[in-house]
Amino acid sequence: MSETPDLILSTSVAPHVRLLTLNRTSKRNALSNQLIVELGAILRRAAIDEDVRCVVLCGSDAFFSAGADIKEMRERGFEAIDNSARRSAWGDVANFPKPLIAAVEGICFGGGHELALLADIVIAGEGAVFGQPEINIGILPGDGATQRLTRVAGKSLAMLMILSGQSITARSAMQAGLVAEVVESGRAQRRALEIADLIAQKPPRSAELAKAAVLAAFQTTLDAGLEFERQAIRHAFSTADQTEGMNAFFDKRPPNYRGK
Fold first, then answer.
1. What pLDDT band is residue 60 in, cutting at 50, 70 and 90?
2. Hey, what CATH class is 8-201 in?
3. Which pLDDT tens digit goes with each residue over 125-161?
4. Domain ranges of the chain
5. Active site residues
6. Measuring CA to CA, which residue among 259, 145, 128, 141 is closest to residue 204?
7. Which of 66, 68, 97, 100 has a beta carbon 3.0–4.6 Å from 28's, enabling a disulfide?
8. Homologous superfamily, domain 204-251
9. What CDD domains does the annotation carry (predicted)?
10. 247, 102, 97: which is closest to 170 by C-alpha?
């Protein structure tokens, strides 16, 4: 049964920028199956919407997300977090081709932290707290943290967070490379939107290629990643936006990128 019609609020807040807000605040933005499926569907549409060049994902001031829905797990067991619809939706998030920024305030635990790990840039409020507390209820992360957290923050910190359930502060998360910037509490969304607006003014095809090239560093060998980069820049040179960008540079005028 559907719980509410809008678990994700989608708003166009600036030219080419989409703001997605987790809207399950009564449940601390717990990532129910319905919420994840709804998020995946929105990102699938945004991926092919030429008007969207960058997406910002946020929660509330108190909770980005407290994690997966424990009530669903108690009722449905393993199937609650391992079913075809949920897997497909997580894939939509992981494979979203455009820049994705997470604005994190407050609690960012479990599945919520795993969602933030899929963002390309994370902006955190000073009071944000990050953790993987699944071991406290007899399980372990199941939406990617054992792999992604380890790749980003290293084995030792990943082991500490996952084996002890201990959380870390926003400042510690930035030192570990999980967060790009820490700002005053309550300003994460504003700063994320500023960055999104800056990115949205860049040539969108080049931004997508650059994102894919950086992600290749986590997924391939160095030689394979360098070859991916060469092919990506080769493709960028074939775009109309590349011609426009260089012409604008020499003409000393702002470029007009059209995503072509």
1. very high
2. alpha beta
3. 999 999 999 999 999 999 999 999 999 999 999 999 9
4. 8-201, 204-251
5. 68, 111, 114, 134
6. 259
7. 66
8. Lyase 2-enoyl-coa Hydratase, Chain  A, domain 2 (1.10.12.10)
9. crotonase-like
10. 102
